Amino acid sequence: MSWLRPIDQWFADQVFVYRAKHRAYALRLTRDGDEAEDLVQEAYARLFRLSNWAEIANPNAFTLRIIHNEAVERFRKAQVVQLDRSLSLQALEPVDEQPLPDRVAIARQDLNRMAGYLERLPPRCREAVCLRKIDNLSPREVAAKMDISVSTLEKHLSKGLRLLAKWRYADGSDTEETRVTESVGECRKMRKQGMK
Amino acid sequence: MSQDAKAGDEIAEAAADWLVRLDTGSADPVAFEAWRSSDPRHASVFAQMAATWKRIGDLRWASTDDDAVGPSAMEAIEPELPRRGIDRRAAITGLAASIAAIATGAGFWMHMRRETATTAIGERRVVRLPGGALASLNTATEIAWRMGETLEIWIESGEAAFRLAGKGAVGAVLYAATMRAELAGGSYNVRLFEQGPRFAVMAGSAAVSAAGGFTDMLHANEVLTASASGFLTLPLASEELAQTGAWQRGEIIFDGMELSAALDEFNRYLAEPIRLGDPAIGAIRLGGRFRTDDPSGFLQSLYDGFGIASRRSDTAILLYQK
């Protein structure tokens, strides 16, 4: 797949595997699903603006840091400033020294989920994706086998891929929370007690 | 749905279309590059799509059981039956039968169990495989195996040494990238480099076949190397032989290699890598034997021997000439 550059591979292996953590963290900062989503996407886009990405020792921590900084920036620019959010932004500093989550275990869970998602695809989509990706038939062979044109096959594949990417991305956001600094507990306590 | 989310959906749709049409060959690569480079979000979303696309293909040989890999004690010898630290895997095969079953939603998967063992960066462990084979895993390594009529072993990443003895291990097959080796009883070391596997026979013999129609019979003290121009069998240098023993003891030996190359080797074991703060010192040649679990001895020797000092940056340990 010559259209994949080293940065794409790096992103997939070092960053995107931890997307559930990134989303969970963004959600805790923003407490808003859409905004959290946009924060993560903005952070990912920023990674693709880097020229020295290969030198980042801990891409996961680095990504959390960007998410945090972006959240702070947005908070400062916001027309209506929510005071309690300022508190959570301070408390939810990403922990740079945290041990890396087990990439292999995450990838394995991911694979199991993927098997489940495949079964949820519409039948023709599923057939196209399975023949191309699992049976490893060439696009032309798949089209012939399904008795459709290559351009129709492209539509099935594209739709299938989009659905899989969407489910895959949406899932797992509730599995593990990002470890945060000690002060969070304190902060929660304060909020409960109405000490905003 | 917010404006941002809607825009995100549109990018996702475009990214999926590009990827699929690149795959089928109907996309114009120039137009694609123009789209991708016009916005970092395009590049990012495309990379996310590509990661998903690749993951679907991983199902070809991979698992369905969910069993997380737990941490394991260094050097602990683990039994061959699956337990903590080793995970059971059931692979689906890419056969038409299973595809038809998936396509009809019958949920029929062909189960062919594959076990795996992994090590994190800086970790080593020894795993007992079925039939009396022992596998030593070096840092950042993943292997898989399956016991059918014969033992099959896959090196997915990193480096491992194998000691095969006993009847059960005879005829074991080792796969590393495009290489396939049928092993007699003996002792072997295999490491996956970017350009392909490096496979050393310390004792025993191996019938090897590899991409490009390469076949050869390797004997003790021979090594198979992969390069851009293909595979080649060479005599095993005594330094490399020493190295295969050293890593299993948690040691690394430098035999006059340049500092830049030595760092590449050492960094395999380090979560926080050592880098050259000054490229000029990269050509210094050094020798010595160091512990891989503790770079401080190495750093001290650089200071004592060459006046090379180190300081911590955010992401690495930087070396510079004092």
TrEMBL record, chain A:
Which residues belong to the signal peptide in this entry? none
Q: Where does the RNA polymerase sigma factor 70 region 4 type domain lie? A: 117-164
Report whether DNA-binding shows up as a keyword of the record: yes
Q: Supply the alphabetized keyword list.
A: DNA-binding, Sigma factor, Transcription, Transcription regulation
Q: Does the keyword Transcription regulation apply?
A: yes
What Pfam families does its record include? Sigma70_r2, Sigma70_r4_2
Domain of life per record: Bacteria
The segment(s) forming the RNA polymerase sigma-70 region domain are 22-79
Q: Which family does it belong to?
A: Belongs to the sigma-70 factor family. ECF subfamily.
What name is this protein filed under? RNA polymerase sigma factor
State the organism named in the record. Qipengyuania qiaonensis
**Lineage of producing organism:** Bacteria, Pseudomonadati, Pseudomonadota, Alphaproteobacteria, Sphingomonadales
From TrEMBL, chain B:
Domain FecR N-terminal residue range list? 13-51
The residue ranges of the FecR protein domain are 116-206
Transmembrane helix recorded as keyword = yes
Q: Name one Pfam family in it.
A: DUF4880
Concerning InterPro entries, the annotation shows: FecR (IPR006860), FecR_N (IPR032623), Ferrdict_sens_TM (IPR012373)
Q: Does the keyword Membrane apply?
A: yes
Q: Which residues cross the membrane?
A: 90-110
Sorted alphabetically, which keywords does the UniProt record give?
Answer: Membrane, Transmembrane, Transmembrane helix
Q: Under which name does UniProt file this protein?
A: DUF4880 domain-containing protein
